[in-house]
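Section 3.1 - Work completed
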Amino acid sequence: MRMRYLVFALSMGSLCTTIGCQSTYSATYHSQSTSPNARPVPTATPVPAVQAAVRLPSNYPSRPLATPSAPAPTPCCEAVCVMDALTGNVLYEHNGNTKRQVASTQKLVSSLVVLDHGSLNKLVTITTEDTKADPTKLGFRPGQQYRRGDLLHALMVKSYNDVALALARDTAGSVPRFVSMMNAKARSMGMRNSHFANPNGLPAPQYSTAVDMARCTWFAYRHPVLRSMVSTRSMEFSKADGRSVHLENTNKLLAQYSWVTGMKTGYTNAARRCLVSTGGVNGRHVIVVVLGCAPSRIWTESSKYLKWALNIS
């Protein structure tokens, strides 16, 4: 089997902004792909002692994944990337660098920008503009106030488009400025084939790739607050009018498998079904990005690559 090496440079700041610590580092990862469609990623200057430079939560995976002995499953979607969540090695990709819309999975980029700027305890005052984001909405009224952390949690669990607008406008002062911050954040994470036009993933002149979204997830997985949010199976959200809303995570894999740890769903007609999923067993964790899948296959498509990488029968 022909192996190709992918190299990408990653740099992160504000790893734990919300818990009072900050870490800035850069790293280069050499990853290999078994896909016949693999394409090289632009090369950056290597840095030594990559893993020693990365500050990880105490419960983070301690061992890299072994290269699976079995061949990778045949893809039934437009694009796939399977990445070792510790090392950043790409174990498999199919059309991994093909640009396409990624729907609400790009809210992972939005969430990282929000976490980089300001306290999660700050109150967000809703404006009329925040309410204009069909079809999936929490349902705001102008003048209502919510804690940023509560809004971000709801965004990661239920993927509300109006919540994404409210957080974007509150964080940057305007949605266009927030989008500029998203694109800057993407560049800092080595997402070289991505460009975003809104914070929620609704159809627009924007795109990313399976490999780029895996890179984003590599960073998101290292943020303890975000990891907790995306792993939430259900939650109660208190609305400003006193009502409580029960939210079930849109990621159905969380309910199906105890070893699945989160991340983010997405769907539009242009993007089709998309899912960024993460899981781990025995100290080894994996990131799987599936883009452009049929609605009837998205869960089995993602789980088969998770199981393949983690050697789960």
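Second construct:
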Amino acid sequence: MTPDIVRYGELRPCKTAFIDAHTPGSDRKENFTIIGGGVSESADQFVHITTPHGFNIGAAGQPPKCRNSLHSHRTAEVFFVLSGRWRFFWGRHGDAGEVVLEEGDIIDIPTGIFRGFENIGTDYAMIMAILGGDDAGGGVIWAPQVIEDAADHGLVLGANGKLYDTKRGERLPAGVGPMPKLTEAELADYPEMSPMQVVGWGVRRYWDMVALAKDKPVKVIGATGIIRDRPGFEVDLITRSSATETRHRHDRPSVLMPAKGHWKLVWEGGETVLAPGDTASVPGGLDHAAWPSMEGEAALYHVVATDDPAGPSAIG
């Protein structure tokens, strides 16, 4: 057994992943599906690792002033900022609240609310995403205005969850209608959460987590985490001072994602070095260890599935 490793420089983007791919302001984003099929609506999306993990790992890369349109998920959606400066916003029209996140910060967004995000930095930047469940809840739920805007620019989402580009002459197949928009009655089930609810519950700042991880890894998301959520996976942050060269194993696949610095990953019969933007999937039952391989700042996110259902997160 050996880890599966996806290098940052080998990531294969999809620029037509979602219904807003032609909508001005959202038409330059890139979507990456690293582990699992994710929620992409495009047949052009490349999946790097198909082995089920109990969760999905993806990423979004966007130039400055590019945004991802308002949407919701049926399972958890967690982001950490790999590079740049990002504004996350939420609500039916995106005006219920917002928060700005910097490199290393993490946000656990409750299910059942519309959310979007925008690169507000000065360079191309990337955020890494964790979605609950192997099928990530079956897809994206778009705010009605997103579907309307997309149609004005040639993209139609079928009820089968697939995109059709009318500018390229594509049409919905026989027997397949357009994805229905949420009704006003259905929209009433999507709460307008306050900044205190979303930020206070689900946002943790990188440097605060580094302080907590001084002597041992800090559990960021989990039943006993600093975000007390049970979305079907746990997230830990490991730093230079809390890393160990002692090998260990899990009974299921685990994922290592460096946020800062270079990390040496070793296992029986092999070793490699991971850098920010790389993703390593370690098979269950494989003894391994990871620690910083160079001087300087170093932090790594560790993700492993739990036996908790991957369904809706609830603010506690």
